[in-house]
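Researcher: Let's continue the batch. This sequence belongs to Rhomboid family intramembrane serine protease, and it's 287 residues. Same format as the previous ones, please.
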Amino acid sequence: MEQAQMPGCYRHPGVETGVRCTRCERPICHACMVDAAVGFQCPECVRDGSGTGHSRTANQPRTIAGGRITAGHPHLVTQVLIGLNLLIFLLGRLNPALIDETVLIGFAFDPDLGRVVGVADGEWYRLVTSMFLHQEVWHIAGNMLLLWLLGGTLEEELGRVRYLTLYLLSGLAGSAFTYLIAAENQGSLGASGAIYGLLGATVVLVRRLNRDMRPIMALVVINLVITFAWDGIAWEAHIGGLIAGVILAYAMVNGPRERRALLQGAACALVLGLTLATVVLRTAALT
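Model: Same format as before. Here are the structure tokens for Rhomboid family intramembrane serine protease:
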């Protein structure tokens, strides 16, 4: 006799579960279940206070990555990041010197500024500031479109803190990889490293939830083709961010629940450590 298939979690349809909310009876997976006085409840019943009177003392509902589920404005961090990128883009258009002062560059003499500039000259902040710079309308439009399409779901599934950590560390890894490989006097800017980190993280998340992989893999292929076919694109930032995003996301949504925080912390430390080591070694080589 064929074994009956268990229902999928109402928040993560691809994850089978035999547990149901004691209040609304919706199927919930281990990442969504919240301990109650009797059995488990779903995040919505806990958030709305519609449980059996014990919801006030129940554990805080968590995302699949262990982050807090926030009521209202589920895409707040994504919206803030988009707004920040747009604001800096407008400031750069009004004051081009802003880009010269903050763009990622290894070590070079800048005739506009009349001095030597670059990360190797002690301007390490360029690794971060360049992540929010864009010069062309098509550049920022493409990055912000991907940020909107990918960021919302990741923010909901990972939680705000983990999502922001993923974005920043992926972008920083992309900057470090560009600094390592690109010519020392070649300028680089854009949020692409961080965006490709979100792209890699989405692949991991879709796989974890057992959803159809074809749409996200098609998006990855299209973006990689553009990366290597279009002259002038800093492919190093794309690849560095993509690899970092995959590593971080895998640690965030996999592994035993009891050791989840330890695994996530170790992955973040690994990516940050490799990033810093790359920057230090490249700086030593240039100076």
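Researcher: Any comment?
Model: Residues 65 and 136 are 36 Å apart (CA to CA).
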